[in-house]
Amino acid sequence: MRRLYLLPAAVALLLTYTPTAPVAAQPPAEAPRAAPVKDRVKMDDATKKAVAKSLRWLKDQQAADGSWGNTAITSFALLSFMANGHLPNQGEYGPEVARGVRYLLACTRDDGYVVGPRGGNMYCHGMAALALSQVYGMTGDEDVRKTLKKAIDLIVRTQNHEGGWRYDPAPTGADISVTIMQVMALRGAKDGGIHVPDRTIAEAVRYINRCYDRRTGGYRYQPFSSGPGYARTAAGVCVLQLSGDFDADEIKKAVEYMERTGEDRQHYWYGEYYAAHALNQIGGEQWEAYYNRMRTQLLGSQRPSGEWYDSRREAAYGPVYQTAIAVLVLSVPTHYLPIYQK
After folding, report:
1. What pairs with residue 229 in β-bridges?
2. Where are the domains of the chain?
3. Dihedral sign computed on CA atoms, order 37, 184, 321, 12
4. Which residues contact 145 (CB under 8 A, 6 or more apart)?
5. Which end of the chain, N or C, is more open, meaning fewer C-beta atoms within 10 Å of its C-beta?
6. Separation of alpha carbons 122 and 217, rounded Å
7. Integer-rounded Cα radius of gyration of the chain
8. Which pLDDT value is given to residue 166?
């Protein structure tokens, strides 16, 4: 893996940047948008206590430079705090969120690529761009907007001829997993007022639709690769919804595929990250059943110190990654994050 190092200017930014006062955020005690009437799922007291314990654990894992690992894992951690109303310098964990945001800004190269001293790829970039889009959408911070704009411009110009993206910031290959990461970031930025060409998202959706398997209703890794999987299918449903195609036949069939196959043991956390988003957007009984099942499962597997870690499921990414996603799944009903709002 190529290692990239912070430029002196980026180090200076890390040491001196202070987020400007939020202009659009709501106080942590109140979500910025009320949950739709049809969404009857709420966080009960046991879930709130589990999330509070996990956030305390995550706080203790933050490194001195503001990170929780590479830019992707740092972004997952930041999203888990923001999903519970903690913004840069606002809320109980405001200082930790501010340091995490400074880290992402300092990891941004001149060309807009958001990777840092631990290296990374377009997975890391897409997650970082999504996290920054949520920070900007909730605070209106101008310094975040400038960095986000550069990150989004890089995504736009590295889209390949098929409409997708792969590991490198270049218009070469494509796969559904990396592509969906970029679409999430593009949609988050667009919702915040950053210009995203309509054609970029349209071409990305066209590529993702080529990965759809009409026989099963699931989504493949690439258009002509082997069979579909739960995680990729959940992600595919997210993209269709984020593109505004809520009534697509593919959504119904994809959800049926997910219900038939059940969780993806190989990509469990990644899959549930997208499944929670997708099924929340669908709402109704399917969302209620999913959330209740995941709440029971997660609350029963949380460690006494507050984290989640299952060595059988994506163990290489560590407990911060697993804990952050568990918090995100449990916190969807708060509707704090703009990307989760309906």
Report:
1. 219
2. 45-303+314-337
3. negative
4. 136, 192, 194
5. N
6. 27
7. 19
8. 96
